[in-house]
Amino acid sequence: xxxxxxxxxxKIMFGQGQIAGLADALPKNARILMLYGGGSxxxxxxxEQITAALTNHTVVEFSGIPANPEYEILMQAVAVIKxxxxxxxxxxxxxxxxxxxxxxxxxxxxxxxxxxxxxxxQEKITAAMPFSVVLTLPATGSEMNAGAVVxxxxxxxxxxxxxxxxxxxxxxxxxxxxxxLPKRQIANGIxxxxxxxxxxxxxxxxxxxxxxxxAESILQTLIEISETVIxxxxxxxxxxxxxxxxxxxxxxxxxxxxxxxxxIHAIGHELTALFDIDHARTLAIIAPRYYEHCFDSKxxxxxxxxxxxxxxSKGNREEKARQAITKTEQFFxxxxxxxxxxxxxxxxxxxxxxxxxxxxxxxxxxxGEKQSVSPDDVQAIVKNAYS
Length: 387
Ligand code: NZQ
Ligand code: ZN
Hints:
By secondary structure, the chain is an alpha/beta fold. The chain is 48% helix and 11% strand.
């Protein structure tokens, strides 16, 4: 096991009715920007619960954060914070709104010329506005981590950044919010969280026995609850296990002391940037082909995953590892998620070359736990995912 440090300062308020606790969780004298998306919170009762909890707080609303939060819109929110002299952000939504809040938090006090450099040049964040979260979509783990992904439509870019200053102060996780989610978003949430675990697990045996068991237990739980949360999102126990699994999948616990990959996400972000495909679906398109391409370096962990998560007992190590890839793809398919690029766009020709070229230009010459996945490999993986 490698050396590590571990600190996660986010306070989690988990369970039904917890939104009311915002009244005490947010500083009494805070001047709050309440950030949300396209309006789902006004149809499912979340908005009413928040306004009831914050009657004694000063709140200015900013709505319209789109899925895959857009830089230009986030900069409008930065302007509102400055005009209204606000000092706290409350993000109400899924990963897009939460990530948007993180970018705004970093951009408000940014001293450089162009806040896009926070993403493009990975400029160090030295100050951040405090923020809290009401999670409405279990998927990304953004409610308990310090990372964010921001898109810029004009240049078809989607880039990630992180800073230890960007953990939410507190996050309300009320599993009953999933009742209003379209099946498509629930399926996305399962696949996103599942792939987060895979990215931090499917590397090589590194002696992290507990980390492996943490990861496998999250995968098993997601498989166990998947059908129920899609067919019956009103099942509170299933919803609660779904929501907590998604948070635990990416809150910085399971990756302590072990190697991680994140190549699938790097490639997936490009498919969203180019074709506006839902984040989770890009992962489902890439993951099976990525594991096939990187089979030799990952087969030990693939076989372990086959045995422990999918209970595959027949075959030698390589056969088990291959079956695990098939099982994973079938699992995504049973959730209604297609795993080829051509299922989402007719325009895919040339995208493998475009993505490989972008990675070369950015100096991303070696993805994966051993930095061995070159732009040529990326090109082959994306080509294999066409159809
Ligand atoms: O905008 P509204 O009307 O609220 O509708 C949203 C949105 O259209 C809807 N929704 C959310 N909660 C709902 C609901 N509809 C009904 N009932 C509810 N309770 O769902 C749609 C999608 O929301 P979005 O926030 O975009 O989804 P998700 O949570 O999957 O977030 C995706 C974004 O997070 C990034 C992705 O790249 C993408 O930009 N990620 C962030 C990560 C992180 N910060 O750690 C890690 C992830 O790997 C990921 O990259
Ligand atoms: Zn993800």
